[in-house]
Amino acid sequence: MFGRMLFICFLLLPLQWVHSVTFRAAVDGVEWLVEGSPFACQLIHPIPSFGAALFEQEAGEDVEFKLNPAQTQQLRGNVRLIAEAAPWSPGMAPRRITDVPVQQGQVSVTGEHAASVLAALHQGLMPTFTGQNWYGSHQTVTVNVLSVNFQSAYEEFLECLVQLLPVNYRQIARTAVLFPTAEHQLSDATRRRLDLIAQYVLTDETVQQIFVDGHTDNDGRRLLLRDLSQRRADEVTRYLVSQGVDESMIITRFHGDRYPVVENDTAENRQRNRRVTIRLERD
After folding, report:
1. Domain extent listing, the chain
2. Distance of alpha carbon 5 from its chain centroid, rounded?
3. What are the backbone angles phi and psi of residue 75, rounded to the nearest 5°?
4. CA 18 to chain centre
5. CA angle (142 as vertex; 139, 148 as ends), nearest 5
6. Checking phi first, is residue 268 left (phi over 0); if not, alpha (psi -120 to 50) or beta?
7. What does each C-alpha distance from 95 to 35, 157, 250 come to in angstroms?
8. What distance in Å separates the CA atoms of residue 26 and residue 36, rounded to the nearest whole number?
9. 177-204 pLDDT, tens digit each
10. Domain topology for 169-282
11. Closest CA to 94 of 105, 86, 102
């Protein structure tokens, strides 16, 4: 008799309760935390028993909105992201933002969709992720991002963004600057690029060595080309040192026309070979 009553009660449960698992912070415990450095800024919203949602902007990149489960097996396939009214202020119809593929157990939203999430939070809405197959089952999983305490934390996040470097390591770790025929003087564009490299090196203490390598096309006598590649490399090294880079970090080399990146068979290709490469190495 007891078992029959329990079965009937189970049938009377709301369908969403049976088939959906929902994660959200308690209203009186919502946190938005800011972590930052010159290399990246994060605005993090911990979600108890699930993981975190966060805005992240790396130096030199656009902002991303991410959903990071503590256990990556929780999400699979695709999830839908909508902006809906918070439970304490109903009345607004949900607005679909995008459908996002789950990659390595995480979700990343970029560009205009990340901006839409920002706008929703500023409006007091609740960005909500909904996915199927929670932990590989047939249950739906819903993750709510609450806007409580968002505004003040976002102002702190903006202050962090102002301090970001203009480039990140990936963007300047391998750089080539080009030269006109028979020239070794630095162009304004080259100086601007070297300024970025110097600024990064002076900030990132993990960069231990800089390799500066001069090259030419094959238009000329071998010894003259070797001398020209040396003058190009020396010019780059001198400029980096003038911007505050420790000269002992720099290894300057020159190779003439020995290592073309492409065949010297067109004017365009020869231009690509008239270069100095700058390579950063971390410890």
Report:
1. 15-162, 169-282
2. 54
3. -120, 135
4. 38
5. 160
6. alpha
7. 30, 26, 54
8. 26
9. 999 999 999 999 999 999 999 999 999 9
10. 60s Ribosomal Protein L30; Chain: A; (3.30.1330)
11. 86
**Residue located via tokens 């090196």:** 201
Phi and psi, residue 247, nearest 5°: -60, -30
Q: pLDDT band at residue 137, thresholds of 50, 70 and 90?
A: confident
Q: What are phi and psi of 154, to 5 degrees?
A: -65, -35
Considering only the top CATH level, what class is 15-162? mainly beta
Single-letter code of the amino acid located at 159: E
3-state SS, the chain, equals CHHHHHHHHHHHCCHHHHHEEEECCCHHHCCCEEEECCCEEEEEEEECCCEEEEEEEECCCCCEEEEEECCHHHCCCEEEEEEECCCCCCCCCCEEEEEEECECCEEEECHHHHHHHHHHHHCCCEEEEEECCHHHCCCEEEEECCCCCHHHHHHHHHHHHHCCCCCCHHHHCEEEEECCCCCCCCCHHHHHHHHHHHHHHHHCCCEEEEEEEECCCCCCCHHHHHHHHHHHHHHHHHHHHHCCCCHHHEEEEECCCCCCCCCCCCHHHHHHHCEEEEEEEEC
Mean pLDDT, rounded, for 157-165: 97
Whether the predicted pLDDT of 112 surpasses 50: yes
**Which residue shows structure tokens 């073309």?**
260
